[in-house]
Amino acid sequence: MKNTLIILLCLGLLVFGVFILKSRKANNSNLQRVTVTLDWTPNTNHTGLYVAHELGYFKAAGLEVSIVQPGQNVTDQVVATGDSEFGVSYQENVIMARAQGIPLVSIAAVIADNTSGFASLKSANITKVSDFAGKRYGSWDSPIELDILRSVMENAQANFSSVRVISGIYDFFSTIGRDVDFAWIFYGWDGVAAELRGIDINFIPLKDLHPALNYYTPVIIANESIIKDDPELVAKFMSAVSKGYEHAIQNPDQAAEILLKHAPELDRDLVIQSQRYLSNHFQSDSHKWGFQKPEVWQRFAGWMHDQRLTDLRIDTEKAFTNQFLP
C-alpha cells in the first residue's frame, strides 16, 4: 500500500478542479465561503451537514458552506491539497495518509462506534470470516479496504488469495448474490435497506472481529495547515456542524426530511428508518457528539501497523483533535 495515497493524490483532481472553481464563485455577502467534500453520494451519515445548512447554523457562524461530491475516493486528496477546507473520510484513511506524510487530521467522529461490516445473503451461508475463502468479494476500491479484509482473514487462518475480488462494486443490492457473494456495508444504510426490502442477510460487524476494529468511520477531516493558520474558521465550522448532528440525534424524522429536500432522489422510507437507526449511534455512549477517544486511535493505529498495513507508526495525538468541538 506504500505510496497509494500519493499516487491517488495526482488522480481525480483535474475533474474536481473545474467543479470546485465553480463552487467558489464571487460572493458579495459577508459570509466566508468554504467547501466540505463528501465521501460518497448524500446519505444519512451526512445529515448533520445538511441540517446545519438548512437551519441556518452555518450562516449564523458567518459561513457559506458548499457541500460537494466530486467523485469516488477523491476527498482525502482535495482536503490534503487545500482545494476543499473540510471533508468526510475514515479513520483508516487518515492513519494511512499520515504514515505517508500527508497531513490530514480528523476533527470529529461522525458515528461514535463502527456500524460497518461484511454482509451477504443468508442463503450464501457466510456466517464467519473463514467462510470468505473461495467467495467473490465486491470492492468499492478504497485504498486500504482489501488490506483490512486480508488481515481479518489471515487472523482467522483463512486464505485471502482464494477470494475473487470484483472491483467497482458500489451498489449492494444490484450485485449481491449475482456478481458478488459478500461485501462491506454500513448497516445504517444497506442493512436497514435490507430490512425494508425483506431481504435476509448475514452481517458480520467489524467491531466484533477485534477490539481495534471498533474505530471511527466516517470522520470529518481537515488538513494541518488550515488548523494552524485559521483555527477560528475550523471552530466556526465545527460549532455549526455539531449543532446539526445534535439536532439530527434529537429530531431524526425532521433531519431525514431535510436530507430528502437536498437529495430527493433517495428512497424516503430508507432515509427515515436509517436516520432513526443512526440517531442512536451518532453519539452512542459518548458524552457529546463528535468526541474521539485517544485509546480508539492508539488501538487501531497500532493494529494497522502490527498487521503491516502501514510501514510507520504514526503519532496519533497529531492525527485527531477534539479542540474544535463546542
Fold and architecture overview:
The protein has 326 residues and is α/β, with parallel strands linked by helices. Helix content is 41%, strand content 16%. Strands 2-1-3-10-4 form a five-stranded mixed beta sheet, with helices on both faces. Strands 7-6-8-5-9 form a five-stranded mixed beta sheet. 44% of the residues are buried.
Overall structural class, as computed from helix and strand content, comes to alpha/beta
What oligomeric arrangement do these chains adopt?
single chain
3D shape? globular
Reading the helices and strands in chain order gives HHEHHEHEHEEEHEHEHEEHHHHHH
Which value, in Å, is the CA radius of gyration? 19 Å
Question: Which percent band covers the strand fraction?
Answer: 15-25%
Total number of strands: 10
Biggest sheet strand order reads 2-1-3-10-4
Largest sheet, strands/sense/barrel: 5 strands, mixed
Mean pLDDT: 91
Question: What is this structure, in a nutshell?
Answer:
The protein is of the alpha/beta class. The chain is built from 15 helices and ten strands.
